[in-house]
Amino acid sequence: MVPFKTKVSSNEKQLSEQIIQKNTKNSNKLKIKIGEKTFSATLSDNPTAAAFKALLPLSLNMNELNNNEKFAQLPKSVPINASVPANIQAGDLMMYGSNTLVLFYKGFSTSYSYTKIGKIDDVTGLVNALGTGDIKVHFEIEKD
C-alpha cells in the first residue's frame, strides 16, 4: 500500500500553478457569461485579440445600440488593425477603435471599420440572453 500524501510542497504547488497559467494563456477559447447563459467563443490569432486576452477576466456593462449590438469601453486601449468587414455576423466580437468592444447579436452589412478579435462558436440563445437593454457580460479564458 502506498501512503496517501496529504501535504503539497511549495514546489508542487508552484508547478501546478505554472501548468494552469500555461494552459490558459495558450488557450484561444473564451467563455462569455451573460446572465445564466454561458457561450464559448474562439479568439482570432492577432495582436488585438492577444491584448484583449491579457485584460481577462473582465466584467463589462455593455450598452445596447441599433438593436444588433452591445458595446462597452475597455479599461485599457488595445492595438488595432481595422478594416471594413464584408459583413457582420451574429456572434462576432470586434473592436471599434482601440478601446470599444462590440458584441454583435444580429448580422448586417456595414461601412464602419472594425478589428475582429473573435466569434461565438454557437449563437443559439444569444439574442434572448442579451435582451433589449444594457447588460453585464463577463469574459474569461476557457480552461481546458
Automatic annotation (TrEMBL):
- The scientific name of the source species is Emticicia aquatica
Q: What is this protein called?
A: Cyclophilin-like domain-containing protein
Q: Which residues form the Cyclophilin-like domain?
A: 32-140
Q: Which domain of life is it from?
A: Bacteria
InterPro entries according to UniProt = Cyclophilin-like, Cyclophilin-like_dom_sf
